[in-house]
Specification:
This protein is an alpha/beta fold. Among the domains are: 3-95, Arginyl tRNA synthetase N-terminal domain (Gyrase A, domain 2, 2-Layer Sandwich); 448-569, Orthogonal Bundle (Isoleucyl-tRNA Synthetase, Domain 1), CATH 1.10.730.10. It contains 19 helices and 15 strands. The relative contact order is 0.11. It binds one RNA strand of 77 nucleotides through α2, α6, α11, β15 and α16.
Length: 577
RNA sequence: GCGCUCUUAGCUCAGCUGGAUAGAGCAUCGGUUUUCUAAACCGAGGGUCGGUGGUUCGAGUCCACCAGAGCGCACCA
């Protein structure tokens, strides 16, 4: 039940009627008209800008139009307490107390689906996220995008869409060869006491490779590790598989489960790259040419080479992109073209890619490919998660690939916990860099917004416990004749915002709106709770040791929204803290 | 040189696709526990929304230019 949408519909019907009568002009599109939350210093519940939007086409001042509208609106709705016109031309409406009885009844009767955006057309989504190279465990840098992708998916699922969470495994190419070589040398180190060539900067130095090497030695007694070339094929498979084991366990510790892992090697071996490039060729978007050196770069080392290029400039990219290396093998980009063609073949309505900030430059070319292949500009949406700045003891903390001194997801979770990690990573817009201060998050865990929201839920649970009720059970209430006070209505108004929050989060793929909203709601609740100290009528449990029905549904509805929100964010709502 | 993202209180950030007197937390100062969880609450101070123009009834929000920060810019993945 979205009270803002319901009222917007009412107003649209009204002005259309007036337009039919000939007493009002309306613009072609009614898109600008909205019903919104008024600023808190106005004593009203909802507010609309209709009069201001209609002002132009009617050549009248917004105030005049508003004044003629308010009587008509009031006549049609006996739930209105006051309706008034304010300065630039807003119409402000305050409902009678009884309005909120109907509201809370409605919310309670379909608790689980409260907030679901019924206006959204049901779609099939594919959300690709993480897709870190299978060359070792996940580190903190992967964490934000992982959580972002997971929760974006959760929001879409909450809104009843069909969502598939997918991981693209880059198990092909030079990096994988280097990785496998590194494993090979670690194996020789263990078996033949041969020193690992640490000076070779192409190799992966991390300690986790020793464990991978041990696992491979233990689980296999066929392979001989004399020459890399002899075992490279089998060893690659084993090494990648060990890596994926680590990654999947990291993801599971973060509370993330992907529906599908797609392997780049499979795509390449299936000849899908050639097929996809052929499709682009048919559209005359592939040609053989040379890329010019970027200005300002050092031109001396630049070698112009004839190679196969994709005309991404046709779609707004800065330059055309190479599909083939000079040795005629495919580039990474080419196999990604194939992968996206593969996605398109699976008939999704919308593809979503979650990328790290360091891959933002990649967006234009890949959206160009999807547009070229599907003919639909909006088929692929790329969402970038900005960097996480790690801070330890007040100082920035840099990770070094060469030394292999990563902070892993494992370290992070064991230090601050899964829920705190998820909540804090989401509490900011993905467009801005995020400060993640280890010492702060750990030391000041009491100031952590996660606990603030959880505490709210725990407080409500404790009230239920006191009268032997369970917070999770449905409430069956027949009579909704209540008289909520101003302080309670303030919270009910916040509850009424929940569907709006979900709508914005889903439409714009901005999960941070959910923790931000939950924090605000919790704040209203804690404030109300403390009023009970001075004013016994604000306590939930009365002198007969019972909770009256008005307070009971009130609590139920609040806890339900918190639960829904926390489920989407993917964190626990403990009943005791 | 080019592209992407950002710039809001001392610090970290919200600001619902252009609306009304721009909001939180932290930090600082001062208060609140015989009562359902004080991991909480109440109060005070703190702002030229990076700058300059433009678009319009109306701009933190849209456009242009400028300044600053981060990320990226070949056949790596």
């Amino acid at each position: 039940m979205n009270i803002f949408d319901l009222y917007l519909d009412k107003i649209i019907i009204l002005i259309k009627k007036l337009n039919k009568d000939g007493s009002l002009e309306i613009p072609e599109t009614l898109k600008g008209i909205n019903v919104d939350i008024p600023p808190s210093n106005f004593d009203c519940d909802i507010s609309t800008n209709v009069a201001m939007v209609l002002s132009k086409v009617n050549k009248k001042s917004p105030i005049d139009i508003a004044n003629t509208l308010i009587d008509l609106i009031k006549n049609e709705d006996e739930k209105i307490e006051t309706i008034s016109v304010v300065k630039p031309g807003f119409i402000n409406i305050k409902f009678k107390q009884t309005y909120w009885n109907n509201f809370i009844k409605n919310v309670n009767q379909n608790c689980k689906d409260f907030g679901v955006n019924i206006k959204e057309k049901k779609q099939k989504y594919l959300v690709e996220f993480v897709s870190a190279n299978p060359t070792g465990p996940l580190h903190v840098g992967h964490c934000r995008g992982a959580i972002l992708g997971d929760v974006i998916s959760n929001i879409l699922i909450f809104n009843k869409h069909d969502v598939s969470k997918e991981y693209y495994v880059n198990d092909y190419g030079n990096q994988i060869i280097n990785f496998t070589k590194s494993v090979f040398f670690r194996i020789r180190e263990i078996l033949f006491n041969e020193k690992f060539p640490i000076e070779n900067s192409d190799l992966y130095p991390g300690d986790y490779l020793v464990d991978i090497a041990k696992n491979i030695i233990e689980s296999n007694n066929v392979l001989k590790f004399d020459k890399f070339e002899d075992v490279s094929k089998e060893l690659t498979l084993l090494s990648v598989s060990e890596s994926l084991k680590l990654i999947k366990s990291n993801l599971s510790n973060l509370g993330i489960v992907h529906d599908k892992f797609t392997s780049e090697t499979d795509i390449v071996l299936n000849n899908e790259v050639q097929k996809a490039i052929d499709k682009l060729m048919d559209k005359k978007l592939v040609y053989s040419g040379k890329i010019k050196a970027p200005k300002g770069e050092d031109d001396q080392n630049w070698v112009e080479r004839e190679q196969l290029l994709f005309k991404s400039t046709d779609f707004g990219d800065d330059k055309d992109r190479a599909l083939q290396k000079s040795d005629k093998s495919w580039t990474y980009f080419a196999s990604d073209v194939a992968y996206h063609d593969n996605k398109l073949d699976r008939n999704y309505d919308t593809l979503i890619n979650i990328l790290g900030a360091d891959h933002a430059g990649y967006i234009k070319r890949i959206t160009a490919v999807v547009e070229a292949l599907s003919g639909d500009k909006k088929k692929l949406i790329c969402k970038v998660s900005q960097l996480v700045k790690l801070i330890k003891d007040g100082k920035p903390f840099k990770m070094s690939k060469r030394k292999g001194d990563y902070i892993t997801v494992e370290d992070l979770i064991s230090e601050v916990g899964r829920d705190a990690t998820r909540f804090i990573m989401l509490n900011r817009s993905s467009d801005v860099e995020l400060d993640f201060d280890f010492t702060k998050v750990k030391e000041k865990s009491k100031d952590n917004p996660l606990y603030y929201v959880q505490y709210c839920y725990a407080r409500i649970s404790s009230v239920f416990r006191h009268v032997d009720l369970n917070i999770g059970n449905d409430l069956d209430i027949k009579d909704y004749e209540f008289e909520y006070t101003e302080d309670e209505i303030r919270i009910l108004k916040k509850i009424a915002e929940w569907p709006k929050c979900i709508e914005a989060a889903s439409l714009r793929l901005e999960p941070h709106r959910i923790p931000v909203y939950l924090y605000e709601l919790s704040s209203e609740f804690h404030s109300y709770w403390n009023m009970g100290k001075d004013d016994p009528s604000k306590r939930f449990i009365n002198e007969q040791k019972k909770i009256p029905n008005d307070k009971l549904v009130f609590l139920k509805v609040i806890s339900n929204v918190i639960k829904s929100g926390m489920d989407i964010v993917g964190v626990e709502t403990p009943q005791k803290m």
